[in-house]
Each structure stands twice: as C-alpha cells, then as structure tokens.
Amino acid sequence: MDQGFRATVPESEVITQFGVAWAAIAAGAVAAAALTLVLVAFGAGLGLSAISPWSDSGVSASTFKVGTGIYLCVVAVMSSAVGGFLAARLRIKVVGMPSNEVFFRDTAHGFLAWAFATLISATALVSTTSYLANGAVAGLAGMSAQAGSAADPVQLYADKLFRHAAPGQAGTPQHNDAQVTAEVARLWKADFAANADLPSADRTYVAQMVAAHTGLSQADAQKRVDEIVAEAKSDADQARRAAAHLSFWVTAALLFGAFAASLAAAEGGVFRDGTWNGRILTPRVI
Q1: Domain count along the chain
Q2: Residue ranges making up the domain that contains 163
C-alpha cells in the first residue's frame, strides 16, 4: 500500500481488500435486467395501443419506429442508472483510499453491472425488442404478430403473380394448381438468394407460366412479373433499412446505458461514503 495512505490514516482503519465486489455488481445487474424487461414490456403495451389499422387514427409506422428507438434509450438510461447506483451503493466503503481512486472504482463497478446486465438479458431483450418493433407493421396490416411471422413472403409474391386476369382481358386462364406456384416460389427463392433478382431467362419463363395460367397476354404477364420483382426488391430494401435503423437505436441505447450506469455508480458511491445525521445525509465531497 502507498506510504502516503499510512501517513494519514491509522493502520487499524486501512482496508487492504480492494478487489471487485462481484456480489454488488451481480445485485445491480439483476435489478437493471429486471427493470429493463418490465419497462420494455410496458412500452410494448403502450406502442401496440397507439397503432391502428385505420388510416385516420393512431400513429404512423415511421413515428412508431422513431418513438420505439427513443423509448429504448430512455429504458436503457433508467434501468442502467438503477443498476449502477445499487452496484456502488452496496459496495463496501474503503477507508484510506484517495477520492479520485474511489470515484474510478465506483464508476468501474457501475460499468461492470451494466455489462453483466446486458449479457444476462440479451436473449430476452432481443426477442422483446423484435416484438415491439415489428408489432406496428403487423398491426397496421391488420395481422397479428404471430400470423405476420408465419407468413412466407415468397409464397405471397407467387400468389400475386398467378392472380387471374381482370374481366374483359384477352386469354383463357387454365387451372391454377399448387404445383405451379410452388415451382415458381422455389425458383424465386433460389434466384433471390443468389443474386437478389430474377435473371432474364427465369423472368421470361415465369412470365410464360403466368400467361398460361392467368389468361394474360405475354406482354401483360411480363409486365406483371417485372412489377412483382420490383415490389420484392422494395420490400427487401425496406426490411434492410428497418434492421439497420433498429441496430443503430440499440447501439445508442447501450452506449447511453453504459454512461448512465457509470455516472449513477459515482453518485451511489458519494451517498455510500456520506455521513448520516439522523435522517439527513451529507454526501462525500468528490
């Protein structure tokens, strides 16, 4: 131990165990993780109650996504602050250590509590956040979250391709069986998995199948195929953007949570080392 500590503090009052207080860190982490799940579940209820399938009521999808990101940041700050404060507040008071070193160790305990809480709640938080973020899309489409996750988008595109021609259009549609749509769906999946598009040869083949089974002319069938392919690309791009935005919001929430936990831990250490005079606390001066 530094000799300067011994010169100012009696030997009997110096604590030599300055290791990490894992029990305090675990307590703060469990509290932070539990509070996070409670607040996220509460936010899911608020969010799903704010959306509506009617165009003139409820919030829009873009507003809901931004609100979800902001709420995630608020949840991270609140829960991490509670966990960091508890981690430092429950840590044993160290006598004979400089205040700047005590400040560092308190913030370190808050940061570790945040990290531990993030690890133990990662799975539950990801699943709950996905439900919260995707609930608006399912709700606005008039579908439940379960139905939305179970639907196969490729099969939906195939069904759109093989809709019968409108009354009055030329051509006589043949019987539209499941084997035809299944074949096109398999071809669609393979091509989009490899190139995110239908090659020209496959487009021509699919257009021929559509023309033969819907009553459309070859030109109209080719136009329909091009439109559905463009729709699929647009949907994929929107999904990519939504995933990227959600990742940015989650990253921001984690960073805000780490800062809040460290700052709250420093405050918890000030209260831990303060002096109580009855019900009045005089905090330690940093």
Answers
A1: 2
A2: 153-235
